């Protein structure tokens, strides 16, 4: 059987250990966007999401492509400085391993935690999912502003 060369996307977004090594060789200085690991206890593989994190003047925004996952199968937890996204993508049909020509998509449990660069107001966070893209908007906490006080003569 011919060994297929995995695409770049496969190597960074859902491959197995040997694909992870190939991705490291391509860009060793970039944080690994995908990591496959064994969960404790049940031995199931878990994928790590790729994310974009950026800021606007008033909020921190996290975006992730989570195609194939239903919103009710995604759990988001936020603290003052950390966001964790967990979920599961289900296959639509079972296919035998030997019947695949290419297998680049990751199915099953996934998670990602990210430490935020500044404190946020977790109570006012909002999450939406449109066209398979999860977007989380978290307002920044207002930094203490310095107020000048005038002295009145009495």
Would you give an account of this structure?
This protein has 154 residues and is mainly beta. The protein has 2 helices and 9 strands; from the N terminus they run ααβββββββββ. β8 and β9 form a beta hairpin. The longest helix is centred in the first third of the chain and has 10 residues, at 17-26.
Number of strands: 9
Might you state the CATH topology name?
Immunoglobulin-like
Low-confidence stretches: 15-41
Percent of residues in helical segments? 10-25%
CATH uppermost class: Mainly Beta
| Domain tally | 1
Could you say which overall geometry the principal axes of the C-alpha atoms support? rod-shaped
Please give the oligomerization state of what you see. single chain
Largest sheet: 5 strands, mixed
Structural class: mainly beta
- If you average the pLDDT, what whole number results? 76
Please identify, by name, the CATH architecture: Sandwich
Termini Cα gap: 94 Å
Strand content: 25-35%
Biggest sheet strand line-up: 1-2-7-6-5
> What is the radius of gyration computed over CA atoms, rounded to a whole number of angstroms?
21 Å
Order of helices and strands: HHEEEEEEEEE
How many H/I helical runs? 2
């Amino acid at each position: 059987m011919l060994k297929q060369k995995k695409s770049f996307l496969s190597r960074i977004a859902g491959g197995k250990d040997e694909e992870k090594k190939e991705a490291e060789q391509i860009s060793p200085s970039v944080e690994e966007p995908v990591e496959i690991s064994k969960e404790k206890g049940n031995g199931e593989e878990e994928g790590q999401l790729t994310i974009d994190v950026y800021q606007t003047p008033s909020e921190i925004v996290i975006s992730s492509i989570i195609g194939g996952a239903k919103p009710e199968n995604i759990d988001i937890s936020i603290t003052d400085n950390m966001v964790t996204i967990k979920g599961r993508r289900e296959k639509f049909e079972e296919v035998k391993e030997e019947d695949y020509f290419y297998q680049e998509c990751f199915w099953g449990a996934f998670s990602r935690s990210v430490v935020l660069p500044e404190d946020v107001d977790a109570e006012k966070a909002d999450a939406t999912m449109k066209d398979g893209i999860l977007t989380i908007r978290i307002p920044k906490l207002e930094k203490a502003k310095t107020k000048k006080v005038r002295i009145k003569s009495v």
